[in-house]
Each structure stands twice: as structure tokens, then as C-alpha cells.
Write a structure and sequence with these properties.
Helix content of chain A: over 70%
Order of helices and strands of chain B: HHHHHHHHHH
Number of strands of chain A: 0
Radius of gyration of chain B: 21 Å
Strand content of chain B: under 5%
Number of strands of chain B: 0
Structural class of chain B: mainly alpha
Distance between the termini of chain A: 53 Å
Number of helices of chain B: 10
Strand content of chain A: under 5%
Oligomer: heterodimer
Largest interface: A-B, 88 and 90 residues
Number of helices of chain A: 11
Largest sheet of chain A: none
Order of helices and strands of chain A: HHHHHHHHHHH
Structural class of chain A: mainly alpha
Chain lengths: 194, 254
């Protein structure tokens, strides 16, 4: 609420802002610290859902707008969980069509786009390709744990699922991911690109 | 929702234990990916944050969770999706977070629904009416944030047009973008025609043209799309949108 008020104040010039300087400053500082510390994680989590670089930035931006409104509700220990959970919801609200890779695309075509993993960018594309073949609910747990280093309680909090579900989703996600990467490797060997 | 860092319930990360060479390579690369500096700057501006570049660089390096730090920032193309620039200006103009309830029903939880700026998630309205500021309509002059250089930049950006013009422009372009995103390309074209007709010296002509190219391409009017794309790329060779236009149509950038 404080965040919302502060943002609204900006439209009213200095008059109201001058009336509430003690609250506004710490909130702004906290938001800036959170942005510095976590915006890359939020952006990258969205990238791994298949969003373009700029669409991921859109979601990241919206996520921090929500955070700005709700700073008072966010426990300092659960900032990452709050941010990544909010980002997931924003992404869901955008609709699956714009969120996930088009699964019907032929995998070999996508491999052709990422000819060699010697190139960092191609390796990222291969990762996304593999993730696109993993069940979405499992993939999001996989990304949070394997790529972004969130703890299981953080993942459970952000997705609002039990800890046991986190563990089982991660296990199944790994199985699927490894099967897909194995297939990719075979395809690349066949094409002499591995 | 207190979270304790120790994580005893899950096994070690795959990259640390038991991954194949290829698995490790792709996971490492994905965990090192960074948004471009330009994109980060735009996010900051849209949020009204003024953060020192050195702090951002340090944070970016720290947040690369790969086993080895990336020596170069990867991949993230620096082209700007129209919503970003539109969003930046919209925030400058309205200066407020605009309430729009998320409709993600299957994720409806005890947590309050996500509030997002209508400028970014405008649900393709029939009329350009998605922006409803929570505060009295400001003028460019009243958008005050003395300590924020990004806000000063916003003020410069909006100085050329009145806020109501900009809001209407943004609404049209956003509606067109939503239409393109949801496959309503005919509708997008009619919105873009309306935009071109109404705002001959509009702020978002490049974004509108890029959307037009995309809509034409979706509709199979590829010859038109390519012609426009070639012209666009020639006119805006350095525009981030040129990359997107080129990718959509297959026209080479210069």
C-alpha cells in the first residue's frame, strides 16, 4: 500500500511527497536493492519459459511494480519467492500462447537453429529447446532449482505447493530434461554438430 | 511465508553431480544469460529507479549462477518490444500503477491478484480506453521527482505531446499489439490505420509500423510485409525494432 501511495504521489508533485518523506525513502531504497539483487533472476526465469528477451523484461517490470505496491507485505527472507511467484502469475496472465515455445515445432528444426554448443547463445537455445519438451509445471521447478538456485522452501512458497510436490516435480523434470537432452545429443551427433 | 535457506530435501544440483557434458554446458549457459544493459536500463526507468551503473554491473555478475562466470553477456538482443517504450512513457504520463485484475483463474490463490499496468496488458479493447489512472490526470509539468534523473528523462520524452494525446496513442498501439499477439491481425491493421490517420506526427510510428509488418506477415501478405520491412530497416537501421522486423520477415538487416 505504501508503495502504491508513493507511486501515486509522483503525479501530484512535491506537495504530498514533502508530507511523507520518512516512509518513502526506505521503500524506494528497498525496491532498488531488490531490483539490483533479483531482476536478472526474474528476467531469466521468464526467458526459460520461452519468453523473448523483451517480453521477459515486460514481465519483470510488472513484477517489480507489484512488489512496489506490496513492499510492506514482503518478508525480507522471501523476496525471491515473492518475486518469482509474482512473475509466474504475470506470465500466466499473458496466456500460454505467448509464454511457452510452440511445442508442435519440429525439434530437428530447432536443433538446426542451434548448430553448436560451443557458442554460448546456441547453448542457451538448446537449453530452452529441451525445457520446451518438459511438462511446464515440472519445468518451472527445474528452472528455479537447477538454474536459479532457489531452495525448495522458496520454490514451495512461490508456487504455493507442498515441499513434497517440489521434490517430486524436480525428479520428474530431471528425467524428462535428460531424456530430451539425450535425444538432442543424438541428433547433433548424426548431423556432426556435437 | 518465512523461508529458510538450508535445503535438505532436494538433491544436489544436476550441474554439480551427475550431469553429462552437454547437460552441463546448456545449463551453465542458460544460468549465465543476462538482459542487455539497455533492457535493464529501460526496466529501471519504467520503475522510476535510479541505480548506479556500477551497482548494476556488480549485481549482474553476481547473479550469474553458472559454475564459471560468463566473460561476455550472451544473446539477449537489444531490440525493444513496443510495450517497453510505451510502458516507460505510460508510467511517466500516468505516474501511477494502474489496477487491472489478473484473470489467471487457475492460479487464483490467497495471494492478491497481480496488479499490472494496463498499458502492458491491454486486453485489445474495442476503443482506446484501457488506461485509468488512480490519480488525477497529471500534466507533464506536474510529474515531479526531483531526485530521479530517469523521471527528468521521462519529462523530456513526454514534453512534445500532451498527456492525453500520448495516452490515446499508447492505447491504440497497445491495442494493436494485443491484437497481433492474439492472432487478430485484421483488427490490428484497422487499429494501426486509425493510429496513422489520427497521429500523423505521432510518437510511436516506428512501433506501429513494426506491428503492421508483423500483422501483414501473419496474414500471408508477405510481399507487402517485406516491402515495408525493407523500407523500415533502411529508414531505421540502428533501431532495435529493425532486428525484430528483419526476423519476422526474413529481410536482411544492414
Amino acid at each position: 500500500m505504501v508503495g502504491r501511495l508513493r507511486l501515486v504521489e509522483r503525479t501530484d508533485g512535491g506537495r504530498q511527497e514533502a508530507a511523507t518523506p520518512p516512509r518513502a525513502e526506505p521503500d524506494q531504497a528497498r525496491l532498488e536493492r531488490m531490483f539490483v539483487a533479483h531482476h536478472v533472476m526474474v528476467w531469466r526465469t521468464m526467458r526459460r519459459r520461452g519468453l523473448s528477451s523483451d517480453a521477459a523484461a515486460d514481465v519483470t517490470q510488472q513484477t517489480f511494480l507489484v512488489a512496489a505496491e506490496r513492499l510492506g507485505d514482503i518478508n525480507p527472507d522471501s523476496e525471491r519467492a515473492f518475486l518469482v511467484g509474482t512473475a509466474m502469475r504475470v506470465a500466466h496472465s499473458l496466456g500460454r500462447k505467448t509464454v511457452r515455445w510452440q511445442l508442435e515445432e519440429d525439434m530437428d528444426l530447432r536443433v538446426a537453429d542451434a548448430r553448436s554448443t560451443s557458442d554460448e547463445r546456441a547453448a542457451v537455445q538448446l537449453c530452452d529447446l529441451a525445457l520446451s519438451k518438459v511438462d511446464p509445471d515440472l519445468a518451472e521447478v527445474f528452472v528455479m532449482f537447477e538454474l536459479e538456485g532457489l531452495s525448495s522452501p522458496e520454490i514451495a512458497a512461490s508456487l504455493e505447493i507442498p515441499l513434497g510436490t517440489v521434490a517430486s516435480r524436480l525428479r520428474r523434470a530431471r528425467e524428462q530434461f535428460r531424456v530430451v537432452v539425450g535425444r538432442l545429443e543424438l541428433t547433433m551427433r548424426r548431423e556432426g554438430t556435437a | 511465508m518465512t523461508v529458510t535457506p538450508p535445503d535438505s530435501r532436494l538433491p544436489s544440483r544436476l550441474r554439480v553431480v551427475g550431469a553429462t557434458e552437454l547437460e552441463r554446458r546448456v545449463l551453465d549457459a542458460a544460468s549465465r544469460e543476462l538482459p542487455s544493459v539497455e533492457l535493464t536500463r529501460k526496466m529501471q526507468q519504467a520503475l522510476g529507479l535510479s541505480i548506479a551503473a556500477s551497482a548494476m554491473t556488480a549485481a549482474a555478475v553476481k547473479s550469474s549462477s553458472g559454475a564459471a562466470m560468463a566473460t561476455t553477456a550472451t544473446g539477449a538482443p537489444a531490440f525493444a518490444w513496443p510495450a517497453i517504450s510505451v510502458g516507460v512513457l505510460a508510467l511517466a504520463v500516468t505516474g501511477a500503477v494502474v489496477g487491472l485484475r489478473s484473470t489467471a483463474g487457475h492460479h487464483a490463490t490467497s495471494r492478491p491478484a497481480v496488479t499490472v499496468p494496463a498499458t502492458v496488458l491491454a486486453p485489445a479493447p474495442a476503443a482506446p480506453e484501457p488506461i485509468a489512472a488512480l490519480s488525477p490526470t497529471p500534466t507533464a509539468r506536474t510529474v515531479e521527482r526531483p531526485t530521479s534523473s530517469s523521471t527528468r528523462a521521462h519529462r523530456r520524452a513526454v514534453a512534445a505531446a500532451t498527456p492525453s494525446d500520448l495516452r490515446a496513442e499508447i492505447a491504440l498501439v497497445d491495442a494493436a499489439r494485443s491484437a497481433v499477439t492474439t492472432g487478430a491481425d485484421d483488427r490490428a491493421l484497422s487499429l494501426l490505420n486509425r493510429y496513422d490517420g489520427s497521429y500523423r506526427a505521432g510518437t510511436f510510428h516506428p512501433e506501429a509500423t513494426a506491428l503492421r509488418i508483423e500483422a501483414l506477415d501473419h496474414l500471408g501478405r508477405t510481399a507487402q510485409a517485406r516491402t515495408l520491412a525493407e523500407r523500415f530497416i533502411a529508414a531505421h537501421p540502428d533501431s532495435p525494432l529493425a532486428e525484430r522486423v528483419a526476423r519476422v520477415t526474413g529481410v536482411a538487416t544492414r
